[in-house]
Amino acid sequence: MARIERVEVFMVDLVPKVKRTDAIQSFTSQETPFVRIFADDGAVGTGYSYTIGTGGHAVVELLARNLAPKLIGRDPDQIEAIWKALFFHTHATAVGAITALALAAIDTALWDMRCRRSGKPLHIEAGGAQESVALYTTEGGWLHIETAALVDDALQAKAKGFGGSKLKVGRPPMDDAKRLEAVRNAVGDDFEIMVDGNQGAAVDEAIRRARLYEPFDLAWYEEPLPAEDLGGHIRLSASTSLPIAVGESIYSLQHFREYLQRDAASVVQVDVARIGGITPWLKVAHLAEAFNMAVCPHFLMELHVALTAAVPNGRWVEYIPQLDSLTTEGMRIVDGRAVPSSEPGLGIAWDWAAIDRQRVEGCTRIVT
Ligand code: MG
What we know:
The protein is an alpha/beta fold. The chain contains twelve helices and 14 strands. Helix 1 packs across helix 3 and helix 7 packs parallel to helix 8. It binds magnesium ion.
């Protein structure tokens, strides 16, 4: 049995490729904490998570001071046992975003090592349900983009074979409705439009907005309300024909269970970093399957392509490239569909020289 003998923690800070704004925030930098786990038989696993600009240093410190030391001497194949032990070790700071992001960096590294040992790509090791997954784009739908450019981007996406485009909402409601109408008229009926409210509305406003958006046959209305407002989501879901999508701001399996059991949503957007890694991500995906719901994960397309292909209810991958400056090749797209890598591991072709050049100074920690 192999034992973990060394853990390296470091961080890279990435600048988004395009300006990204939504109803409540702009995405200024992508702090990317990394974990590399080294076993005594020579096996290595690489994992990562991300923030959209705050908290990265807290994640690194939690990893280096509290979590990585607990890995030394453990069998890296006992992924469930490790996840549970680390979760309970940080019990007073969990459930929470910082802890989940730290757990995810470790858990994805352990899965990477497992896949490399077995010689299988992640989408096979984690389930093996699909060869490719439909792709929609968010990169041309940010809130500051004017309507003509929104329409152009959606038309270009359709021409490239993408199955849909997501538009941010959060302008005055009638403005948003006019933007949706312009895009729907341009793309026709055979192209999906998603909208994303980024938790910007109160319940009364979300109910009114949903009614205004309904005529445009949307694939879903994402994060209409603050994620902690379960009751508001129940009321909204009961009042509209639009599918309500949640998940990018939900940090535990049990919170997803509450949403699904109480009819508060019908599209599940679990994010592998924010849920604490691949181990809980798969549980949420299978839970959604039991409720006959699709999984359409938030962001992190380079990792989610494999996970979405691993499960039978994986429906969409969200196109937002984020790792181009750290990899030697990007996610494969064939006929507008995302195709997971066939290489053993997470399927991300890391460019180690580029990563080393972009490390945030003072953030590298070696734990033995
Ligand atoms: Mg969103």
